[in-house]
Amino acid sequence: MERSPSGTAATPPPMPMSRRLLTRLLHRWGRLTRGVTLGVRGVVIDEGGAILLLRHTYVPGWHLPGGGVEPGETAETALIRELQEEAAVTPLAPPRLHGLLLNRHLAARDHVVVYVIERFEQGIAAVPNREIAEIGFFAPHALPDDTSPATRRRIDEVLDGTAPAAHW
């Protein structure tokens, strides 16, 4: 089993029911108040080929870093902001666009822009915090067991050089 950056086994505690309910309610509220939602994710690959993943405090599993695009913000700007906020990662070159995918798991109008980042600097991330429980770099063949299926698919696409699927 892959170890977390703190050296402990990377098995997250179960997410409380109240937190899952709050997450669902916030997503539903977003669907009511916005026509289309747009998010970003980054496949951050270090020099050794390891992939940056993080574990949120509000959803189970390990995921690619990213988040929502705010009004007036470009997708690339949102990605750079999210990478800095979540993992203290600063790209040293423009992120490479991998694809735009429809995420039907949340709503029929939720889209995710996926970028690839291979040149970056990393500072010291302030984790754990309210949003991020843990971050770490993992070899593609040794991802944590509870890495989300969509995260695994995006990593495979990027590493295999295949076109992204249409759906998240």
Concise description?
With 168 residues, the protein is α+β, with helices and mostly antiparallel strands. It has 3 helices and 9 strands; from the N terminus they run H-E-E-E-E-H-E-E-E-E-E-H.
Q: Radius of gyration, rounded?
A: 15 Å
Average pLDDT, to the nearest integer? 88
Cα end-to-end separation: 26 Å
**Largest sheet entry:** 4 strands, mixed
What percentage of the residues does DSSP assign to strands (E)? Answer: 25-35%
Helix content percent band? 25-40%
Coarse shape:
globular
Number of helices: 3
How do the strands line up in the largest sheet? Answer: 4-1-7-6
- SSE order, one letter for each helix or strand: HEEEEHEEEEEH
- Count the E strands: 9
The low-confidence parts are: 6-11
Class by alpha and beta content: alpha+beta
What does this structure look like?
The chain is an alpha+beta fold and 168 residues long. The protein contains three helices and nine strands; from the N terminus they run H-E-E-E-E-H-E-E-E-E-E-H. The strands form three sheets. It has a four-stranded mixed β-sheet. A three-stranded antiparallel β-sheet has the order 3-2-9, with helices on one face. A two-stranded antiparallel sheet has the order 5-8. A hairpin with a 5-residue loop joins strand 2 and strand 3 (62-63).
Which tags fit this structure?
alpha+beta, four-stranded mixed sheet, 3 helices, 168 residues, 28% strand, 9 strands, single chain, three-stranded antiparallel sheet
